[in-house]
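Appendix B, Record 12. Input sequence as logged:
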Amino acid sequence: MMKLNLLKNLNLEITPETEKLLTLYQENFLAYNAHTNLISKNDEKVFFEKHLYDSLSINLFKGFKECKKLLDIGTGGGFPACPIALLNNKINIFAVDSIAKKIKFINKLAQELKLKNLTAIVARAEELPISYLENFDIATSRAVAPLNVILEYAAPFIKVGGYFVAYKSKIVNEEINHAQNALEILNFKIEKIIKYELPLEENFERNLVIIKKTNKTPKDFPRKVGMAKSNPL
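Logged structural output:
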């Protein structure tokens, strides 16, 4: 049973319609996970706390309310893209991952729950269409790569004045220190870090790193597939 009342901590109001959608979402997710590995079996027990609640923490960022188009890079099983799409039907959300079986689930979910604002794409970030460049208000990423790497994946697709929102653990300061060069080269600045905790029995600190794009991305980016990881900025 999901403790949806806890979403009030994220400044979210849960209507009966929203409660129905989130319940259907969980049922669909766990049924699919029974035969296709999206999350671990242990994580199934804390699906709401560790995945759904965490994904929706973006609501703590005031600038999120202005978002009309969002790109989720390395979405995996659809986090944070799917929960965000469920509660924000006016935001066009594009979920990208290189693993086809995970994108297949998201497309199936979008069809079954009639999520017309959710598009899922099998691709690596470096191979996204040219039409995506500097075309998104916000890009997100959760549990994909160190900040200096994932920022390079996201940077070319965010509008000037837009934001990259990185979901990070309690070692966030270490990642930020390693990302200073990437921030400078890619024309981004850290605007704020929003700390929060997941509603689990143990202390589970999380951070939203809010990073603003201050100027256009240099023409050298995105680099070829694998370069960001093998030769990080």
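The longest helix spans residues 16-33.
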